[in-house]
User: What shape does this take?
Amino acid sequence: MALYFTRLGYRTLALAAALALPGLAMAQQASPALTAFAASARAQGLAASDVADVLVTNSYTDASTGLTHIYVQQRVNGLVIFNATGAVHTDKTGKVVFATQDFVANAAAKAAAASPALTPEQAVVAASVGLGLPRPVGLRTLVEARVADGLVFNNGGISEENIPVRLVYTRQDDKLVLTWNVTITQLNRQHAWNARVDAQTGHLLEHNDYVVSEAATFSEAVLRHQNRQPLAAFAPAASPAGVRSVLSPSAAGSLTVYPVPVESPNTGTRQVVPLASANPTYSPYGWQVSQAPAGTFPDSYSLASSGKFLTRGNNVAAYDDNSNTVTGPGDTNYKSATSSPDGGSTLNFDFPFVQTDGARANLNASITNLFYWNNMVHDVMMAHGFNEVSGNYQYKNATGAGAGTDPVRAEAQDGSGRDNANFYITPDGSSGTMQMYLFDNIAGNKLVITGSSAGAGTYRFVSVAYGPSITKKPLAGNLVLVNDGVSADGGDHACATPFANAAAVNGSIALIQRGGCPQLQLNPKTNSNFSDKIRRAQANGAVGVILFDSVASTNYLSIGSTDTAGIRIPSIYITGVDGFKLRSVLQSGGSLTLASATPGADFDGAFDNAVVSHEYGHGVTNRLTGGPSSANCLIQSYTSNGTTLYTQVMGEGWSDFIGLWMTTQPGSLGNTPRYVGSYLLGGTAAAGPGFRTYPYSINTSVNPLTYGRVGSNATYSESHALGEVWAETLWDLNWQFIGRYGYNADMFGTTGGNNQMLKLVLDGCRLQVCNPGFLDGRDALLRADTLTNRAANADLIWNVFARRGMGYGAKQGDRVNGTPRLTNIKEAFDLPPNVRSVTLATQNGATVSSSLEAFPNPAQDRLTVRTQLASTAPMRVVVLDLLGKTVLSATVPTAQMQQTGIELNTGGLATGLYIVRVTTSEGNFTTKVTIQH
Assistant: This one.
């Protein structure tokens, strides 16, 4: 079968383009812009030598705005500096309207000599060792080139794709270290490591991951909601039943799916959607390959000779990847004619879905739904500006602009992990990969323990991605608490082998406590050592493992990323509450037997359409930020010298916004709580729970997040949680646009506040600096509004951002080595002097105003009043009844009112309607609230 386009194809194209650009008309047209860029950079303190040698990575004109976007990288000694980027944007006349740069000042003086001690081959080996991967075997060069431009090796048996290597400089403190940049895609595609190896010593200096994952969110969501309602209550009252028979056995050219904007089986019903729904403007070749004119696609992609009609088209190839494990590459399934549902010559993709039948019984319906949603998101994003010249995901580009050959590879029921979803970020010309996994049915998973009465009973558990699944290799046997002889607190952490009680463990189920092994380094591939514990239990003869959390008071259900090499026994994970209970029984001499571990019917990630849209959103925002050739301009975290560092980059926030936007039903209200992943947690759309710390809502009593949360603690240092602050702000702004311009149910339209907001977000991504912080993102939206709407919405944008702590006086904090950190952040709720305070839209009685906020509304015993208004004197806050009588009053410093506001005790007020009035040096402002006991 013919080769498929991979990073090798992209790298070759990109290299050719980069080498050719200086002599092309495009570069000649860009010269005045680059001259202006250099002048701007020098005015900011750079030396002439710092801007004397720049590499143009992308230059294109966006027809919808008339703006030309030129993206560049800094070079010194002929080598690029990793992530030292810049951009210059010009209008239709060629006038520079905006320029950004994050170049290194006095780069030549800071750069080490460009003479590496390691060869490129040695760099690949050093990177694989540093990442904890096997050493490459049979490594050979496939593409020869100058080391400054990058050469390509074969996969060496350790990477699913060929391995590109390039000599670059990397910023470390105030120096430029000579490094080899090596990219290794793990065989299961759960990680695609972009590693910088010291070119003199072979030390792994730093690395980041091109795979953006939801891995942290499932277990954290369970932990967050443990005290809000019992996990058993998470299951819907009636699990979505679906239909056991097909809906339209004779409907040609159709897909049976949960259609846009239905979020999941919890929020709507499946419907028959014609393949003709493909928008001809944005999918001129249709959605399915056989809809395109003959010869559009080669047989190596269309698989026409197979006689099958698959979920494969110009925008996406969707298929089953359940067989993908750490050693079973998904690339095989991508090329297979049997891993996708066959719609037959009539193209009738109508398959049954019944939740209780189990995921594998619903496989064809799952892949079909995933295929449809990837196509819909493609068309909608293209309608709002993510088009071919911008680097969208398509096999064939009708305009000839952009690289093409890169449809999304959408993998359903991926077998390389569980309770997760991810997207493999790639530059234009190389397919992005979306991996959707199966999720534990927590309420349905039943662990039965017999024996001593103090421990006998039924418990909850989550499946573990390590080793064989319990459906293939049942878990049962005598339960034995491990004693490794070395770890503290009883030795049950499995930190060393052989175990002190190896004879007892042999042939039994090993009970092992999480953590407790400080002498062991975390596996860099998984950021955990769970798999090492399981391997030790296996080496001591255990036939299975129960891992339990290390905090006795928590209901924390968690397990790390997959690393199954050499593991042959099944495992499960239980909470600390349950684990310590079983541990106590065994320590006191009791006996326990694991009678059975029966999983409930899994939830399938491909049926949660908001999560599917979220993952696709990563591909959109990464290619728009820094240009389509970049895959390094939204690094959410990276590891430097063994320490994982999180950044302010808001990738998870944009993706949450896109997921919410795509699944907004007509008639929805902004203050109605919206959850992400409620279906996958076994919850409901109305009551959750979801993956995030708070549901999304414009009502600050429902979602109180502000910029001050970013980096404030461990929770809000992780990319998903801090992304919530950004997504909530965008969500607020979306509803203010709807309040001003109305809602348009036509997702392809240009009118309606929802459509204008999505367009603004995509335009802002083009304009923002590489690896932006929150305030960079705010300013990019303001700049986009200025350039495309003549600043018609600047007041709304400023007021919404000020309300969420990103006002005029806010500070973004430290930016180190081109990356916005989580330190020295300052939130502020004020407006610029020339921006008026406006009353923002309200819904269902929820007061949402930058002038005056009063929440919750209705209130019971407590009412918070806050305002971003300026005042030269302390503010006077009074609450009046409908007869004008003052029932509560307080005088509050202006700074306090702008930040936290004042909390009033309303417990003594009668139920009814009241007026809140705030007096400032600028005048009086009022709003209504309801007290309801």
Observations:
- The first strand starts at residue 54 and ends at 62.
- The first helix runs from residue 7 to 20.
- The two ends are 71 Å apart (CA to CA).
